[in-house]
Design goal:
It is a single chain. By secondary structure, the protein is mainly alpha-helical. The chain is about 85% helix and about 0% strand. It contains four helices and no strands. The longest helix is centred in the middle third of the chain and has 29 residues.
């Protein structure tokens, strides 16, 4: 019980919301980069250069391609 109470107390006082939110943001950015990388690879592999160029500029078209290609 004593260790449990101490662990709870430490987690409450040592929690850094800004650090946590920064980590969450960084993880989200990394996931987005990986997703875009897979999209680029698929489009290049399939020879769809014009669609790749359009996807770089058009967010809604990029989303459509991500859905189409199963990512």
């Amino acid at each position: 019980m004593k260790n449990r109470a101490e662990a709870i107390e430490m987690s409450i006082f040592e929690y850094d919301e800004e650090k946590h939110m920064r980590q969450v943001r960084e993880e989200g950015e990394q996931m987005a980069e990986e997703r875009m990388s897979r999209l680029i690879e698929k489009l290049m592999k399939e020879g769809r250069r014009e669609e790749l160029e359009r996807a770089a500029k058009d967010t809604s078209y990029r989303r459509k391609l991500l859905e189409e290609l199963g990512d």
